[in-house]
Amino acid sequence: MNKQGTLFYVMGASGAGKDSLLQAIRTLYPKQLLVAHRYITRSSQAGGENHIELSIEEFTQRQQQGLFAMSWQANGFYYALGKEVELWLSLGLDVVVNGSRAYLEQAMMDFGHRVVPIIVDVSAEVLEARLYARGRETPEQIVDRLARAEYYRGQCPNSGFVLDNSGSLQQTIEQFAKEYRQYQDSLQQLSCYSMSRDEDILQ
């Protein structure tokens, strides 16, 4: 049986620090984890993540052609992850994606046990300060983002884990490294158990 890859589904409020964390993962785990680029109807010059900019027409066309594995709308933009994600997982590769909190339920329906939800969380005070500091949103938009962040706070499935990014990025990376090691160890134990069961059956 071919090993199926794991989908690490990273979520969090805009301004929580997902982009910095994903860039760190891309740098620190080049052999173990593939970080997928998102397709967004937002200017690539807007700052933040390294995404692929599409016009609304381009996005709609690709969506109709079935080229997206996941797609959603939030904060006035359209977002998607390409079908390459499904290919990588089928090849047994572990993939990290920048997902939507609202889309998590659908992702877990589509990818099942392969999904490991990761929430990047910060306090409301830290999030507000970061949003104002980056200067990308109006005060009204910041209020909306803070309300959305509060709505989703604490909603992490038991199969996932939360990273507190209120402090330094290094501290968050250390949290991720610990959780990732524990996840790998649990897979190894499960694999050893399965092999033992198979040997018992053959005997």
UniProtKB/TrEMBL annotation:
Stretches assigned to the Guanylate kinase/L-type calcium channel beta subunit domain: 4-184
Chemical reaction(s) catalysed: alpha-D-ribose 1,5-bisphosphate + ATP = 5-phospho-alpha-D-ribose 1-diphosphate + ADP
Highest taxon, organism lineage: Bacteria
Function comment: Catalyzes the phosphorylation of ribose 1,5-bisphosphate to 5-phospho-D-ribosyl alpha-1-diphosphate (PRPP).
Listed EC numbers: 2.7.4.23
Name of the protein in its database record: Ribose 1,5-bisphosphate phosphokinase PhnN
Pathway: Metabolic intermediate biosynthesis; 5-phospho-alpha-D-ribose 1-diphosphate biosynthesis; 5-phospho-alpha-D-ribose 1-diphosphate from D-ribose 5-phosphate (route II): step 3/3
SUPFAM superfamilies listed in its UniProt record: P-loop containing nucleoside triphosphate hydrolases
Xref: SMART domains: GuKc
Catalytic EC class: transferase
Annotated HAMAP family: PhnN (MF_00836)
Entry keywords, A to Z: ATP-binding, Kinase, Nucleotide-binding, Transferase
Family per similarity comment: Belongs to the ribose 1,5-bisphosphokinase family.
An annotated GO BP: 5-phosphoribose 1-diphosphate biosynthetic process
GO molecular function list: ATP binding; ribose 1,5-bisphosphate phosphokinase activity
